[in-house]
Amino acid sequence: MLTELWSHAHSRWILTVLLLIGAPFFFWGGPGYYSSRSFQAAWDLGHILYFLLFTLWLHQWLRARRGERTIFFEFLLIFFLVFFLGIAVEFLQMLGGNRSPDAEDVLRNQLGCLAAYAYVIRPQVSAVQWQQRLMQIGVLLALMFAVWPLSRAVIDEYQAMQQFPVLADFETPFERYRWNNSNQLREETKIVRHGRKAVQVQLSTNKYSGIALFFFPPDWRGFQELRFSVYNTKNTPLFLNSRIHDVHHKKHEMEFSDRYNQQFELEPGWNDCAIPLDKVKAAPKGRAMDMEHIEGFGLFVIQQPRSQVIYLDNVHLSK
Fold first, then answer.
1. Looking at per-residue confidence, does 70 or 97 come out higher?
2. For 215, phi and psi rounded to 5 degrees?
3. Which residues contact 30 (CB under 8 A, 6 or more apart)?
4. What are the two backbone dihedrals, phi and then psi, of residue 224, each rounded to the nearest 5 degrees?
């Protein structure tokens, strides 16, 4: 089907329209800081699709001019044109100020180019068909790797809905990716408060060091408390700060007084902490917290003299 579309006389016009429609999305729209992981991952895959189409358009444009070019030279020409265009897009995004350059996007662009040559553009010389078979295998493996973040996000988002009102108990494989700075989290099976697993959280000596739960069902209405367990590895008390905010927090310039803040004094060993949600609702100055649209829950320490670890387990809502 794709080959038939590619060989159609008007396919270049179709591709031109699709490319013009897609081009603005490199600079406008897209996922925000708190957008779901599946939306973010799906948006990233758009680079592959766009540059697959762009490669097809370039291929047809070059073939229409019928220059004296070998298949290999044409491939290299298109491959590097895609590369330099991808670099230019990342640079323009940086100048626009609302997005930052991403090397992985450049790799996705190149994968789109390779996918076009592997699965759509057919070699006219039978001697190179075996090379295309090898390319197809390699590109398929790369595509599976590229699609993995989306697959992982969809699986865990479904699990999060099934587990609710448990927000993170770390019993399933991908729960640590619900948190920002997930590289600070390590699965733990020995120091556990509930179930079979917890996570070790690495804290640094930065002014603020911690983690935040970003991806979870946001409707906390009907629940009385947010509960979680923290293991303090020190022999002395540790002061751990918590924060909760809703979707309207950024409209209020993310002021300290526009969110819920509480400090816990953790004794050595396990500490079972609870946050009353009625206090969360009343926390923002001049308004009520939107308990239907909670956006983030964070735990952090302030200016520790040395790096250390804590353990976290069984983050859940209770009635």
1. 70
2. -115, 105
3. 43, 99
4. -100, -35
- The two three-digit tokens of residue 161, written as one number: 């809905």
Q: What is the pLDDT of residue 69?
A: 67
Q: What is the per-residue DSSP string for 261-279? A: EEEEEEPSEEEEEEEEHHH
Using a 10 angstrom Cβ sphere, with 0-12 exposed, 13-18 middle and 19 or more buried, the burial of residue 255 is exposed
Contact between residue 211 and residue 185 where contact means Cβ atoms under 8 Å apart = yes
The residue-averaged pLDDT of 235-240 equals 94
Q: Percentage of residues in the chain with pLDDT exceeding 70?
A: 92
Q: Map tokens 């990716």 to a residue.
A: 177
> What is the C-alpha to C-alpha distance for residues 34 and 208, in angstroms, rounded to an integer?
20
Confidence of residue 26 (pLDDT cuts 50, 70, 90): confident
Judging by DSSP bridges, how do beta strands 238-246 and 198-203 pair with one another? unpaired
Rounded Cα–Cα distance for residues 164 and 168 (Å): 9
Which residues partner with 300 through β-bridges? Answer: 210, 241
Nearest to 318 by CA among 276, 280, 264, 262: 276
Quote the tokens at residue 192: 């556990």
Name the E strands within the chain: 166-168, 185-188, 198-203, 208-213, 225-232, 238-246, 260-266, 269-276, 294-302, 308-318
Residue ranges of E strands in 103-213? 166-168, 185-188, 198-203, 208-213
d(CA 290, CA 288): 6
- Angle, vertex CA 151, rays to CA 148 and CA 156, nearest 5: 125
pLDDT band at 8 (very low <50, low <70, confident <90, very high): low
Mapped onto helix, strand or coil, the DSSP state of residue 226 is strand
- Exposure string over 121-137, b if 16+ CB within 10 A, otherwise e: beeeeeeeeeebeebee
Q: Positive or negative CA dihedral for 189, 192, 196, 201?
A: negative
Q: Are 76 and 70 in contact (CB under 8 A)?
A: no
User: Omega before 276 cis (within 30°)?
Assistant: no
